Amino acid sequence: GENVEQHPSTLSVQEGDSAVIKCTYSDSASNYFPWYKQELGKGPQLIIDIRSNVGEKKDQRIAVTLNKTAKHFSLHITETQPEDSAVYFCAASRRGQNFVFGPGTRLSVLP
Amino acid sequence: NAGVTQTPKFQVLKTGQSMTLQCAQDMNHEYMSWYRQDPGMGLRLIHYSVGAGITDQGEVPNGYNVSRSTTEDFPLRLLSAAPSQTSVYFCASSLGRAGTEAFFGQGTRLTVV
Lengths: 111, 113
Prior knowledge:
The complex is a heterodimer. Chain A is mainly beta.
């Protein structure tokens, strides 16, 4: 079955710097890759997703890139702000299969 | 529009006790699921349902039961709680099993002593 690895497990950046979180997946048939943000005491919430027919997707300060050959995808956050501090989860899935989540990255944005 | 509602938010159980975690969604989603979240292990799937009357096991189903009598509700039952079930539990719903956004509840923090 699918296995998703995520690095780093913790990340601290200065406010205004960029943050990058990388995930790798094992199932070459996976075709949907969402990223979720979990704030303290809340449930995860989708922030961006990408499908296998697209290499990159942007939404304001957030972008996701996908390398199908290498089976990895990354979340890029530019101009980080304190409210970006949270735990971020990547996930992978394919038709007829459940999501498999990565172990999460705790991002701290230092003022 | 409430989305996904979980109750209770916090619960302490003694070993061997039983309880039901409630989950309800008002988005008419066919797919619902339960996850547990443990430090460093991400979200692990316990049970899921692709529609009313249909349930199946996920990655870590032992010690948990589910049922899906209506589209809206998907309760999770712990029949005999064990300390290993101490965790944060999340219910989620989505239009489909994969490839669509999953909406999560606020979570239930369960401690088994």
